Amino acid sequence: MEEPKEMQNETMEPQIPQTENEANLSEQTPEPLAEPSAATEESATPQEETTQNENTVNEEPTTEAPSSEPAAEQNETEPEIEEEPVVDYNGMSREEMVEALKDLLQTDDITKIKNRVGALKISFAAADKEAKKAAFDKFIEEGGNKDEYEGGDDAVAEAYRKIYNVYRERRQKHIDELEAIKKHNLELKQQILEELRKLIDDESESLKHSYDEFNAIQDRWKGIGDVPRAELNGLWQSYHFLVEQFFNKVKMNKELMLLDQKKNLESKTLLCEKAEELIVEPSITKAAKELQNLREQWREIGPVPVEQNDEIWARFRNAASQVDERRREYYEQRREEMEKNLLAKQALVEKAKELTTERPTSTKLWNEVSAQLDELLKVWKSIGPVPREQNEEIWTTFKGSIDRFYAEKKQHFDSVKDEQSENYNKKIDLCLQAEAIAKRDDWKKATEELLKLQDEWKKIGPVSRKVSEKIWQRFRGACDEFFSRKSAYFTELRGSEQENLQKKEGILAELKAYAFGEDKEENLNAIKDFQRRWMEIGYVPINEKQRLQKDFRDTINAMFEKLKITAREAELSSFRETLHSTASGDHGNKKNQLMEQIQKLRSDISLWENNLGFLANSKQADILKEEFEKKMQNARQEIALLEAKLKILVSEEAEQTEQTKE
Fold it and tell me: Can you give the pLDDT at residue 298?
């Protein structure tokens, strides 16, 4: 880049006087230096990785007479450098975030972790909000009153707060130290300004001494670091004004100017060499940061000889351009990687939607989908960051699918839990019934009831795995106990069947040989005694049971016929014996029962007689009439028997009343 012509024509060529008293400087006065603009902040590429440098300026300030440096160099703005890697904390748990923050605080330079701590803070706040909501929902679900809910931070949140406070204290300490240094630098530069004023006002020193002193002041000025931003422009304006005043006073000659320019050339050549070394620097971030420092140093150095100005500037610019090009390629590569990461995460989003579209129909399927979603989350965490403008949206979409699934899963398992609890209560009830049956000895009825309970057990749904085996063993134990007792009983019973067979054979033989008398009542009592003894004997072999029973019944019936004892007489005799064996207080209830039975039979006879009147003459009607006649005949006989029993009962009551009076 060529230097403006007017700046080339204004190069100073003052002559050094032979003696200090012969100074007669008649050269042109240099034009005032350009006033520096306010510090600007320009974004680096990619945009999301931009940092800010508070001391970047648009125009290059100089400390000497009008600069011979190309104007483009003075107006070039340095892009900022992103020193921190982009980290996606959204996929981490709160515990993992706490560990990540601990790791970040191991960094010595607190300024290098600012952006990562900020991103982590946002992610933790979102995760902590969800955790607190989950804790509140659980409190309400467990029957808590929302007005009594205290909330507050849990142990994880407390740990995070403590670590974050350490970071804030360290960062504030760093900021305070920087501000203190800047204020100290401001005081030093204000002292230099005062020295420069005294140098300008001092007329007693020789020109050579003043120039040497001026150079020393310049070197000290350049060696002082940053000052508070608010003081920057005013400080530069005062310094440039005094520099111009100095040049106006001393009117340095061309030889001194050339010496200064040669010195500046050597300094800028050294900066060119350092810039060229940065071309092969492995760390892009380090190279870009160092290049910015070199540019700031370049601005501090004064002009070089006019004939070498373009050459030295082209050399420095060429090296800087190559470093910038590497930096642009680096960030372009980062952009491409993030785009690939975006495509990969979009695929995970689609897979999560696919897995959560249909509601699982069984507990097994719920758990299988959960395992697949957990695997997707692990893959998500292994993928690097995506462009910042898409980061929140894609994470919200992915997390939304998973959150909805787990909310539905919780609802499903709550429902299953309620159903299992109900099934558990039902099975407990069956266990209690089975345990009661297991103690009974009415084998036939108890067996039927127990088999029915087993069928009911099969129809009841599952219970919790934790109690499933235990409650099954309890129910099965009761069943096993019953059937073991039953088996033992019938095993023992079969051992006595032969003995019982012999006993019944003996009773049958005794019955056939029994000699009855003339008294019907005594004969009935004898027959009843045989029947009672027969019934008291237990089981006989099954193949003999029917033969024995038929033989015994036929013999009894033959006895009744031989003794002219009717079935009615036998039953009335049995009824009379029953009355004698029962308490007198039960006679009233028995009397009421007999009267109710008689009344019911009379009502039935009346109904049947009425129905006969509606039957027409036909073959089918005759069959019905015959059936009704038979029913009415049986009912009349039953009424006669009941009335006889009632008569016996009344007679017994009267007899007991007479005995009571006596």
Answer: 92
Confidence band of 30 (pLDDT split at 50, 70, 90): very low
Percentage of the chain exceeding pLDDT 70: 77
Q: Is the peptide bond before 46 cis (omega within 30 degrees of 0)?
A: yes
Return the SS3 of 14: coil
- Packing angle, helices 520-536 and 567-581, rounded to 10: 70
Gap between the Cα atoms of 560 and 479, Å rounded? 47
Q: Residue 48 CB: number of other CB atoms within 10 A?
A: 18
Euclidean distance between CA atoms 514 and 176, whole angstroms: 130
Res. 318: pLDDT tops 50: yes
Burial, 356: exposed, middle or buried (Cβ in 10 Å; 0-12, 13-18, 19+)? Answer: buried
Cα 568 from Cα 564, distance rounded (Å): 11
CB of 66 closer than 8 Å to CB of 10: yes
Is residue 356 within 8 A of residue 401, CB to CB? The reply is: yes
Residues ≥6 apart with Cβ < 8 Å to 603: none
pLDDT for residue 14: 31
What is the per-residue pLDDT for 615? 64
**pLDDT-wise least confident of 215-219, 279-283, 631-635:** 631-635
Tokens of 471: 């409650």
Mean pLDDT of the residues in the chain: 77
- 8 A C-beta contact, residue 427 and residue 87: no
Q: Are 540 and 499 in contact (CB under 8 A)?
A: no
Rounded Cα gap, residues 394 and 346, in angstroms: 7
Structure tokens belonging to residue 254 = 């061309």
CB 253 within 8 Å of CB 23 = no
How big is the chain by its Cα radius of gyration, in Å?
59
Quote the CA–CA distance of 219 and 300 in Å, as a whole number. 10
Between 42 and 545, the higher pLDDT residue: 545
